[in-house]
Amino acid sequence: MRLRIGLLLAGVALSAALASAQTPALITSWTTQTAIYPTGFAAQMHGAVYSGDSIYVFGGNNATDGDTRKSWRLRVNKYNGQIYQSDALTDLPANGTQRYAYINAQTVTTNSVVYIAGGGWNTGGPNRNVTTIVKINNGTGVIDTITTSLFPSPYDPELGGAAITSAGYFYAWAGDSQSGTPVTYDTCVVAKIQPNGDLGAFSTTLPVPDPDATGLTGWWFPSACSVGNYVISGVGIPNSSQLNADAINKVYVASTNPATGAITSWTEQTTAPLPINLYGAELVAVNDTVFCIAGRTNGGAAQNVVYRSTFNTSTGTLGPWTIVDAQLPSATHYQEALYSPDSRSIYVLAPRTPATGTTPQNQVFISSPLFPRDPIPLAAEKEWSLYE
Hints:
Elements lengths: L1 H18 L10 E5 L8 E2 L2 E5 L2 E5 L2 E2 L3 E2 L3 E6 L6 E6 L18 E4 L2 E5 L12 E7 L6 E8 L10 E4 L4 E5 L14 E5 L10 E2 L14 E2 L2 E5 L2 E5 L2 E2 L12 E6 L6 E6 L13 E5 L2 E5 L12 E7 L4 E2 L17 E4 L6 E4 L13 E5 L21
Antiparallel strand pairs: 1-29, 2-5, 3-4, 4-7, 5-6, 7-8, 9-10, 10-11, 11-12, 13-14, 14-15, 15-16, 17-20, 18-19, 19-21, 21-22, 23-24, 24-25, 25-26, 27-28, 28-29
């Protein structure tokens, strides 16, 4: 029996090593799982990350209590990919009337700490002008502490982007101000992540470009991820218009200085525009592959698209986007997408579909595994010596 267990553990270690080095397999199918939250609850416009063995969901807007400060832990079975338990965690801070909506691309994590850039409102109050720092207990999976770190004034984004680079810098950029001054931001800020998970002081760095040279700056509903020390962002809607008719398909890569965190350039990926104009999409990086998932096109129509591109870390460029993976079961927007290195699937929290209109749905789309999953452990038996 010890020999069999040793072989099993060796297989688990090998599959984990392969998953961290290989190109993801094609997504051949998506499974829809419903009732991921308790009955009567569903959310949209939320932020979500994968940490430890679970999906963590923060804020959003739901049919129960409007804009929300709720936090959830959705535990994932790494052997079959299903969510098997949902637990309500500590609420995010109230801070007056400010809640946590419109944070889809503004929520990121590293080393069991979650960073939520800004956050908006639906019924009143200004946007948040801080990054909320949520520290998760490695042992219990619950929230230990929630603190905030102030942005340089007047930055208070919702519907912007955020990312963390390998050098340990946190970036937030673009989004709208809600106050109307400016209508949308071209601002990009950066802070060094400290050994304890806190953030050092923020500074401003190179702003996002004006993609069509109108002189009107700012991006709205951008998509966001990072690979190594590069930040990748789709523009979404440019030029302060806040009109969904103005969505574009341009994608930029920001080069960063690993020593200082400064962004040294934003480079348009002229050979890798998205196949359609898209805003509110989700970018998910898995090794050197970047997936672009869902969102809306000009006029607001939700999409079920799944695109992939290979990122070249030597040149800092994206390859052309291809449509080779299974598309989502339904179009969706105000979604969150993330990758689990445990189950090796992509999860799309898919609250809004054309069939359900404006009513948030209690469901998730789960991709076929991108790498082989770990084998299910053998049932406990009597320990046999090799020599018995």
